[in-house]
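Lab notebook page, bench 4
Experiment: in silico fold of construct C2
Operator: M.H.
Input chain length: 501 residues
Purpose: comparison with the prior construct
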Amino acid sequence: MVIRSLLISALLLACKAPWRTAAWDPTWESLDSRPLPAWYDEAKFGIFIHWGVFSVPAFDTEWFWWVWKGGYDGPVKPSFQKFVEESEVKNFAYQDYAHRFTAQLWNPDEWAKIFKRAGAQYVVLTSKHHEGFCNWDSRNLHHTWNWNAMDVGPRRDLVGDLAKAVKNTTSSHTNQKLHFGLYHSLFEWFNPLYIEDMKNNFTTQNFAKHKSIPEMYDLVKKYEPEIIWSDGYGGGHSDYWNVTEFLAWYATNSTVNQTAVWNDRWGRDAMCKHGSFRTCHDKFRPSNLTEFKFENCYTIDRGSWGYNRMAGYDAYETTADLIHLLIETVAFNGNLLLNVGPRADGTMPPIFVDRLVGMGDWLEVNGEAIYKSKPWNVCQNETASTDVFYTTTVDAKTGDKTLFAMIRSWPEDDKLRLACPETTNHTQARMLGVTKEVAWSAATEKVDSGNAASSTARELQGKTKTKTQKPGMELDLPPLNPATIPCQHAWVVALTGLKNL
């Protein structure tokens, strides 16, 4: 009996071990208290993929169906109606596009290689957009019949195939496995169940309980996404969507409970308030440091999230603009989720690949300033004239701290003037990708040795002027030419031995 009691006591103690998975309650208070899994903050850069039936017309916007039909009793946009009349048969229905969403040339492993080359650390695929088409094998769910990728169109589990390819890919930039996530639209524009609930002012929950929430459980159980990127809550409150109950299960009992993260688009009460990270609105771009972790979801094609055949060359962001955006986002405590829109046949437009490769080339040189970095609590960026942003890192073994000054425009006189760092006799500077040390001098100012405290005395002529050290420094950037420049678009100087680091 004594031995049995000791064994029972040991088991009870084991259950209270610090590595035991926490149980999260289905309340925002509990869920918001959950620490952000480290991998997400360290990743900094992910890929968003908008791919669905809307990729077939590929006309102007992924909201094609909504605009063409005029939304809820709105006017039909003439250009959309004309496009359909000139390209399709009479009495054509949007659902007919699904038969041409074939993914016949799609190679998920090739996509994963592109994302790896880009330096991305996670990938978020559209599992279902507002049109309601399911990109996964959802045939076990009653309300998705004949409107999913297995029943019509690709006749292939798009989510499952890409999940496998991404999870089997290791980043050459960080030597970490890529993480996989799923975008999921809570509502569906023209689903009769949703329209009925909406007309009832969301006092009924037929759509949420029988369609949307079962889909999310299905996605997590089948594909184990570490990110659930929710969107399209319509006018519903998070209670209507039964969100906290799902997220508590996701964070406590799912197979990815310890690494799972989610955004903030769960209802009109949750937007920009509740989530592992916050998106607030599309292309959310704070102008200063945020207390919360945010994500800037941004499009390479400025006008559309899905593939748009109508886009001209000027519709796309340049590689320099995207690198500058990544720098700014990370300095202010964010991640950049950069969106691409593949074609309906599964091929990736070359202009998207070009931009992603450009990002990866820059990160190959300067990833040290991005991955696993933290915003500098002293100063996140210099004045607009110098166009410099800061991040910091701490060496896990030595505890040594490094400040990275990320330069988005090269100074004309090759001298970089920084006001924020306070130098010491041990300060060192180096440019990433360049072997030689960067010469620097402490910032100084002239003062009146006679009476530095008196403005009147400073105005007097003939007083002896001396220099005194002040916060800041001036760096002589190394002379570079096309053969020696380490990268394009932005450059990084690493600083150690600072007083205020």
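Observations: Confidence is low (pLDDT under 50) at residues 1-20, 449-467. The chain has two domains: 28-369, 388-496.
Next step: discuss at group meeting.
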